[in-house]
Amino acid sequence: MDIALNLVYRDFITAGILTQELKVKNTTKFKTVNNIIPDNWIYVQEKDVKLGRIQVFNNWSPYMVAQENDIWLGLEYFCNEGDELWSMPDKNFLQFCIQELEKLNFIHSNNVKDGCVIRVPKAYPSYIGSYNCLYKLIEYVKTIDNLYLIGRNGMHRYNNQDHSMMSAIVAVENIIHGIRNKDNVWNINIEEEYHEKTT
To answer: Are residues 6 and 76 in the same domain?
Structure first.
């Protein structure tokens, strides 16, 4: 029980910022709708902002944005539940995010049309705390026939989406075929290469 209670997670906030225009321009050979930058994710390295990553939702699918000429950004902040960022009221947090985007010369605040804030507790498992004893917890839960731990939080493993879905698929196949040994579920994402393939 102590092992489970002392597993540590990192929390996460996404701020959605709807804007009419980006200051940063597409200078690549890649064509996009309205010629916006072609990136899905942009990792932010600047030390004078707290922002960790920017998503450009338009580039996942143009249908994620109601108006074709608008740009829907997801600003990702890694934090701890209850800290200064987590506790900031939504209105203040959105203003803080817009200021950070301006500091990065990414947008102009006058072009922002809307925003929203989504807080996700325990989004990322951390490999600290009681993590070194996790193997004991795994051996214990394997003895419970009708319990399958899957995905990032269930397995306390930094799985990508493919690994998380694969753990669920394998767990369901075990249940369907009456396989009681759960090693095949726990062996997902212990290899060095990812499931994704590029063409």
So the answer is: yes
Q: How many domains does the chain have?
A: 2
Whether 13 and 101 map to the same domain: the answer is yes
Residue 171 has pLDDT above 90, yes or no: yes
Pair of tokens at residue 144: 């419970």
Tokens of 58: 């338009």
**Is 135 within a domain?**
no
State how far the Cα of 81 lies from the Cα of 85, in Å rounded to an integer. Answer: 9
pTM, full prediction: 0.81
Whole-angstrom distance, CA of residue 73 vs CA of residue 76: 10
Do residues 27 and 85 both lie within one domain?
Answer: yes
Tell me: the pLDDT tens digits for 33-52?
Answer: 889 999 999 999 999 999 99
Q: From CA 154, how far away is CA 171, in angstroms rounded?
A: 12
Let me know whether 25 and 103 are in one domain: yes
φ and ψ at residue 134, rounded to 5 degrees = -55, -35
Residue among 194, 135, 141 nearest 165 (CA):
194
| Nearest Cα residue to 117 out of 93, 149, 145 | 93
**Three-state DSSP class for residue 13:** strand
